[in-house]
Amino acid sequence: MQETMNYKGYQGTIEYSLEDNVLHGRVLGIKSILSYEGNTLLELKKDFESLIDEYLEDCKNNNESPEKPYKQNIVINLEPDLQEKLYLYSALHNENIIDSIGKAIRNLVTG
User: Are 36 and 20 in contact (CB under 8 A)?
Assistant: First the structure.
């Protein structure tokens, strides 16, 4: 899994460009495209934190609500046979379908 930074509830990537010889990253989990860069990890972290502070300040000054990371609805389209198996699994385990999906995703991302 790729390393990330966290500041005020926002997560950002840590990436490196060999071509430009610079560290860079982008904020994850929101629709707005917010990016930052630095020559060292410390500079990258400072630019990331400054970007988040500026974003929140701009939202405040414009009377806009800042986007909340990962607060989007997720629509999952399953093949009919997989959907049937999910319903059957949930029923046999006395689980809500959402709980079964959550359990499967937790197993996937926590490995």
Answer: no
